[in-house]
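Try it yourself: sequence plus 6-O-phosphono-beta-D-fructofuranose, in.
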Amino acid sequence: MGQVKCIGILTSGGDAPGMNAAIRAVTRSAIYNGLQVKGIYRGYKGLITDEIVEFKSQNVSNIIQLGGTILKTARSKEFLTPEGRQTAYETMKRHGIDALVVIGGDGSLTGARVFAQEFNIPCVGLPGTIDNDLYGTDTTIGYDTALNTILDAVDKIRDTATSHERLFFIEVMGRDAGFLALNGAIASGAEAAIIPEFSTEVDQLEEFIKSGFRKSKNSSIVIVAESELTGGAMHYAERVKNEYPEYDVRVSILGHLQRGGSPTAHDRILASRLGAAAIDAIMEDQRNVMIGIENDQIVYVPFSKAIKNDKPINKELVNVLRQLSI
Ligand code: F6P
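Structure, out:
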């Protein structure tokens, strides 16, 4: 099992439902395998400011069902500097932590990668983000719950859209990725999705107007992924108001409610499997890898791959949406 005796665990970046299930899984698997566990509060910031507590099995009791993260989270500017990382390293050593498990998205795993390289520390990452934008894993922890939250909201908006015969642009999160928007649109029966991945390929609004709304529908839902590349829901609503004034248009921006809520069964199981696999990876002396799931199998993805590669959108899904929204 190499030299590792004590692991530190932190959550970083945007919280995601299922992070607590992951904290629980990492903690309990570590203890099961004879390792000591230290919970680091507020992400990398807590490594710098020394907010670290020993975790026993009871510290993670009754949290599998909770949204958010009991460890809190932050986006630390100081950790971006070499001085900040040096302080973080010294704190780690003072607490006897000799490996780190980082749960977070792209930015958090980028931080882990740099830290691991600079100080030669075993770091293992778990993909925790509602955006689902990490390469090398079929889904990320929190994505399924956020998707279900979107469905719930869109179903409700559809009631009023239908009653008033309106065109709704609903903006969802995803940073620069369209997974929530595209799959949210398919699952909610929306008429179209506008996603950053296709922002340069076609005029997605024109496509939508031509393909469906004009011909047969008097109410419609278009899901728009937030992103500078799409311009967001407001942008499209303004365009329609100017170019097609006959439509009654409304905008709904779902915002941070997408990040909350009790994790779905899918996210709890995913987080539990990935958390246990993170400890397996540490015991096998793996370092600088993100734990992912591909075709229902655990995979170790080098940080360099998980972070740097853009996860592609499955074009088949785009076609499904197009065909089913006629
Ligand atoms: O990465 C998760 C995410 O929710 C993105 O979808 C969104 O763009 C961003 O975080 C929002 O960040 P914040 O909570 O800092 O406003």
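One thing you can check immediately is this: The longest strand covers residues 6-11.
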